[in-house]
Structure formats: C-alpha cells, structure tokens
Amino acid sequence: MNLILFGPPAAGKGTQAKRLVDTRGMVQLSTGDMLRAAIASGSELGLKVKDVLARGDLVTDEIVIALIEARLPEAEAAGGAIFDGFPRTVAQAEALDAMLAGRGRQIDRVVRLCVDDEALTARIGKRFAEQGRADDNPDTFRERLAVYNRNTAPLLPYYQAQGKLVEIDGMGSIDQVSEALDAALA
After folding, report:
1. Which tens digits make up the pLDDT trace of 158-175?
2. Which PANTHER family match (predicted)?
3. What's the whole-model pTM score?
4. Binding site as annotated, residues
5. Is the N end or the C end of the chain the one with fewer CB atoms within 10 Å?
C-alpha cells in the first residue's frame, strides 16, 4: 500500500507515520529526511542538494523526485510507502503518479489529518513556551501553517477526483487518530 499523509506542521503526521512503520512495516519517505541524508552521504545528488540549499534556493521538483525514486525499491520490498511532505504541488503529484505507474504501482490512499488551525497554533505556542524550540515560534508557525494551507489546497481536489482522499479528525488523542487512520486504510 502506498499512502500519502497530509496535514499541517505539528498535526501528528510524523507520529502516525512512525506507528505505521512499526505496525505495518511500511517505509516512511520524508522529503526533509531524505534531503538531509543525501547531503550527509556525500553522493553526487547530495552535493547538488547541498549546493542548492547553500545558495538559499528551493530544491527543484527534479531533485526531490529523484530522491523519492531512489527509495521506491526499498518501499516496494517492505510492502508500501508513506509519503510525508511530498507531493506539495499538483505537478509533483502528477510526477509521482507517473513514476509509480511506470513501476506498476499507484497511490492507494491519501489521508488528510484535519485540524483546527487556532487550536494547533495554541498547542504550538504552549510547546514553544515550555520547550523553546525555534521552529515552534508562534509567528513563524502561523506563516508555516499559511504556506501549508495555500500550497496543499489544490492537491485535495486532485486526489478527491481519483477517489483516494479520506479525511480524518486529527484533533483527538494519538490513539484516537491511530484508530481513525487504521479504519481509513482498511
């Protein structure tokens, strides 16, 4: 099974993905993790990524797709992938569909963790006050949330038209969200 998890920053995608890795043996394909790993590897692609980021530019779709494609055999051997942070645009979604189709595969389910933006912002503000994590700064978080909402919106109709989109309440406890996710994947 190939799954895309959608949800804003701090919605619990990482927590749920790790649980699916543990319980179902799937491979989590997090683009952020893959970019950091590519740089650390010192590979040709890693050096290219490092150079792009050092210039302050965004990593191109071509590079991100190459990173995803390189990990697909591992995901296929494990029985499926959890795409986390990818795709972010309709063009990336189309490229992913084409890449998977070329391998006789497809995205089976797209799960959107629906959260209340204000409650999420309050949760992050509390975590920032308690832990001081720089990425939890409430002003920075609100901008990250706005970017997510703006960029992800066009993807929802894309997957809804394919009959793959399922929305679940992401505001419950970890266990409640896990149960709803398991039901969505059944």
Report:
1. 999 999 999 999 999 999
2. NUCLEOTIDE KINASE
3. 0.84
4. 10-15, 31, 36, 57-59, 85-88, 92, 127, 133, 144, 172
5. C
